[in-house]
Amino acid sequence: KMDGDDDDIPQLSSHALAALQEFYLEQQQREGMKTSHGFNQYSIGSIEEDWQLSQFWYSDETASCLAKEAVVAAGKGGRIACVSAPSVYQKLKEQDGEDFSVCILEYDRRFSVYGEEFVFYDYNYPLNLPENLLPHSFDIVIADPPYLSEECLQKTAETIKYLTKGKILLCTGATMEEQAAKHLGVKMCKFIPKHSRNLANEFRCYVNYASGL
Q1: Any idea which architecture 55-207 has in CATH?
Q2: What is the pTM for the complete model shown?
């Protein structure tokens, strides 16, 4: 007879069931805290890479190094713009309490969790920016154009030149050295940025000011 087969299915005791529900509830609360209370909200990887958007996050060491460089270059009370460089933005936000302000210009709307500091940005429309982003209002602009093409660099360069008072920190492929000099007047640094996942293309940093990189 098949009737009695149901009896063999193990049943959780009411005590075990309550413990399991409690576990799931705690897990949900932890997930909720991540978004609502900034629980590690700014750690690199809290928003996962989307390769379809050509997203590759920097390693923790690289993001820290670039963030420190930006703070020094911006100076006391300085303003920093991160254009398509969210992992540097996240690292800057971890240094809460430091004397600078920062905003993130990014195509990926998942970064809108960062509130008013998030500015939707599409490099195809380099000057389609909100009115409160005044020209030449940032002490330094850090940019990492999403694609290794001259068109992408040229359009991103328009945004950078609009925003910066002068200082530019560009991260892009080593193959873009000539175009970077042509469009932004930047020179390659010794510092070699690394990503949390290794990229096939050699990656470099470029600046247009006296830098420790």
Answers
A1: 3-Layer(aba) Sandwich (3.40)
A2: 0.75
